[in-house]
Amino acid sequence: MADSFHIVEGELWVEDHSITYIGAASKKASHLAEHIVWDREIDACKNLLMPGFKNAHTHSGMTFLRSYADDLPLLDWLKYQVFPMEAKLKPEYIYDFSKLAIMEYLTSGITANFDMYLSPEPIAKASVDCGFRTVIVGAMNNFTQSVEEMEEYYNTYNHYHQLISYQLGFHAEYTTNRERLEGVASLAKKYKAPVYTHNSESKSEVQGCIERYGMTPTAFLNSLGMFEYGGGGYHCIHMTDEDMNIFKEHGMSVVTNPGSNVKLASGIAPLAAMQQMGINIAIGTDGPASNNCLDMFREMFLATGLQKLSLMDASAMDGNDVLYMATVGGAKAMCLNTCDTLEVDKAADIIMLDLNQPNMRPIHNITKNIVYSGSKQNVKMTMVNGKILYEDGKFDIGTEPAALYERIESIVNEMKK
Amino acid sequence: MADSFHIVEGELWVEDHSITYIGAASKKASHLAEHIVWDREIDACKNLLMPGFKNAHTHSGMTFLRSYADDLPLLDWLKYQVFPMEAKLKPEYIYDFSKLAIMEYLTSGITANFDMYLSPEPIAKASVDCGFRTVIVGAMNNFTQSVEEMEEYYNTYNHYHQLISYQLGFHAEYTTNRERLEGVASLAKKYKAPVYTHNSESKSEVQGCIERYGMTPTAFLNSLGMFEYGGGGYHCIHMTDEDMNIFKEHGMSVVTNPGSNVKLASGIAPLAAMQQMGINIAIGTDGPASNNCLDMFREMFLATGLQKLSLMDASAMDGNDVLYMATVGGAKAMCLNTCDTLEVDKAADIIMLDLNQPNMRPIHNITKNIVYSGSKQNVKMTMVNGKILYEDGKFDIGTEPAALYERIESIVNEMKK
Q: How far apart are CA B124 and CA B384, in angstroms?
């Protein structure tokens, strides 16, 4: 993995939605370029172009709960703060809240998200209207969405817009009864599709599943045939060797969410062990109610730092591998096979990182600088599908930020009443 | 502590180096203002002015080692990477390297640092030339600096410039012999001065001291009379109850460095217990070779997050208390008594945070937004001692960033030969 990064000096061309040339500003390139009428030529000033980060687990619509109630015990927070506020949600609110999250993703160089929240339509609409790429995942539990609805969503949102796709999923084993889970497994078989869910985030969740079914969540869900076509788990903290073997055997992805796991005191996922087994690992911010920051730089630092800390080994989890997780690993987990790297014919999901900032100097090692010192402040440009949505602090997402902030404050004040 | 933050709408005036008015843009204020010829009036656009962060432990001159050798076991890193490169240092290099660190502090809203590195002169000169505030701390060990030199430094750098002060200190118990330590304790008594050192950063350090002297580092140093006039410890991870009692009794400060402690796998300082005892806590980034980022936002998140994680309690270490540590707690540890809060007659060490960014919305709770979601990208302005040194991404520090970057790359390339 660590060897998969190499840095090229030269030009990168984008036409429509794709990368069409990477290489030296050579004669051949100049010759080809003669036939193209360029909209814009950007001098990158020796800054770095790289594939956008993939936020492989989030709940964008939850921005309204950011810092609404921090520093509370987990269950109090959910029961008395999150659930009563969520009960007041309307789809049009989710649309605006998701847009706010997309803005933050752009500031952090994130070009795609894997989004689980109550209704798919406002999520899809917010992304398309902003020009952002989103993989929506089923959010079914005993109270929200049904197997039939999920099938309908699967067919609708996989043919909705080139920026949108949909994957089967449900909230978690502990919030979804056996009948519904069997329904999801049937869909997985019918569509030969992967399935995603929150998995082993807390000890009590694992314990509860063992009491109900005599198996860990991973083993139980696997016993239903849930992962015949792969899929993945969000969090994956309290995992047994057998659980990890199931992930490995089925080519499943672990999506780690270290910021949220720290803030909610959930624990540290055994990423180093998973990586050693060859399991694909992706990184997500989780939602803004629990993290609260939608910042891939923070997550990357934590993804390596918490391994070092828990294994008491400063050499654990190389920074290069973490950068791989945040880009290629994420794209793989999200089935975004054309958005993973900078290559000709790949989607133009590209960011420019400002290396002319004190935190990026000196340049001994660019990837380590990104993982260990990088910050949102280094994101000079975020392009999704060939369109620049964020550049030098300005957004081009079809909405004025100030108007969106104002609308959100007024919605939130209404909800608090 | 949590109650000590309150937010005022109105105006803040700075004259020369101090704050001269905070309050409503009232008639009285307007009347007073008539007699003043303002250099500049800034519309804060409903953004937040707050006291600058205090970086209470760092080694600024080590920027040259940032990402030179990450992801190595601790001792290999020190022996084969850090020490051989440090052997090639010259004072003029430390000057440039310190300036690079100062630039990064400014981008993170840090207005003062507590700096321990090889030679005081280039550190002091870099800070004065940039207009930055620095408390230099003695860096004595068996090979660098002597007790006599430290006394000379103490007298020199406490009368050098209003931006510079000097505190007694040494590298650590395990690198400094008893005779030298007794010398420092004598200076502490002579000058009625506090003393600072790295303390209980690793288990082996504590074990070594117990083997040498039958006491923990804190107890042993205290037995020499080292802390008669207070002082503090950097890191303070592996602390006994007795150690913490000594800190409490002597009014000493703990300076926590969670980013470095994570990356070097050192452990988690028991901040919640220390706080409960009423020990003053400050936050430092540690040096750029070990962290590698000089970013108070990352440190604040970790200061609370690691407590939550280690105590398995999402309610541990309230975000408001962490913001206090990063500002008032730091100023207290560094004896910067006029730089701690925004009040009339206090030093104008002020930052402006951009609340008109997606990660600061909605505004349920500004302090929690800063601690949990804040990033360098939110720092719109950093003022030290009444002068704006950083604003909207531009530096005013008497050096062109591009020239400094170039000089540093060339020094570093020379050193690597």
A: 15
Spell out the SS3 assignment of chain B: CHHHCCCCCCEEEEECCEEEEEECCCHHHHHHHCCCCCCCCCCCCCCEEEECEEEEEECHHHHHHCCCCCCCCHHHHHHHHHHHHHCCCCHHHHHHHHHHHHHHHHHCCEEEEEECCCCHHHHHHHHHHHCCEEEEECCECCCCCCHHHHHHHHHHHCCCCCCEEEEEEEEEHHHCCHHHHHHHHHHHHHHCCCEEEEECCCHHHHHHHHHHHCCCHHHHHHHCCCCCCCEEEEECCCCCHHHHHHHHHCCCEEEECHHHHHHCCCCCCCHHHHHHHCCEEEECCCCCCCCCCCCHHHHHHHHHHHHHHHHCCCCCCCHHHHHHHHHHHHHHHCCCCCCCCCCCCCECCEEEECCCCHHHCCCCCHHHHHHHHCCHHHEEEEEECCEEEEECCEECCCCCHHHHHHHHHHHHHHHHC
Please say whether the beta carbons of B349 and B385 come within 8 A. yes
Residue A5 — very low, low, confident or very high, per pLDDT cuts 50/70/90?
confident
Predicted local confidence at residue B2, as pLDDT: 44
Task: Answer yes or no: do B107 and A357 touch at CB < 8 A.
Answer: yes
* Closest chain A CA to residue B299: A298
Q: Please give the pLDDT value at position B31.
A: 65
Query: Which residues on A lie below 8 Å from B294 (Cβ)?
Result: 359
Count the neighbouring beta carbons within 10 Å of the beta carbon of residue B47. 17
Residue numbers of B between 274 and 293 with CB closer than 8 Å to A: 288, 291-293
Rounded to a whole number of angstroms, the distance from the CA of B364 to the nearest CA of chain A is 5
Q: What is the ipTM of this complex?
A: 0.96
Instruction: For residues B174-186, give the mean pLDDT.
Output: 97
What domains can be seen in chain A, in order of their start residue? 51-333 (3.20.20.140)
Chain B residues touching residue A267 (CB < 8 angstroms) = 309, 312
Question: CA–CA distance from B233 to each of A72, B60, B172, B173, B241 (Å)?
Answer: 30, 18, 10, 11, 15
Mean pLDDT over each residue of chain B, to the nearest integer = 95
Q: Residue A199, Cβ neighbours under 10 Å: how many?
A: 28
Using 50, 70 and 90 to split pLDDT, how confident is the model at A75? confident
Q: What's the average model confidence in pLDDT over B280-309? A: 96
Between chains, do A405 and B319 touch, taking CB under 8 Å as contact?
no
Q: Do B308 and A72 touch (CB under 8 A)?
A: no
For residue A389, pLDDT over 50 is answered with: yes
CA distances from B343 to A100, B164, B346 (A): 35, 21, 6
Query: Taking CB atoms and an 8 Å limit, are A319 and B265 in contact across chains?
Result: no
Say if residues B256 and B226 touch (Cβ distance below 8 Å). no
B205-260: pLDDT as tens digits? 999 999 999 999 999 999 999 999 999 999 999 999 999 999 999 999 999 999 99
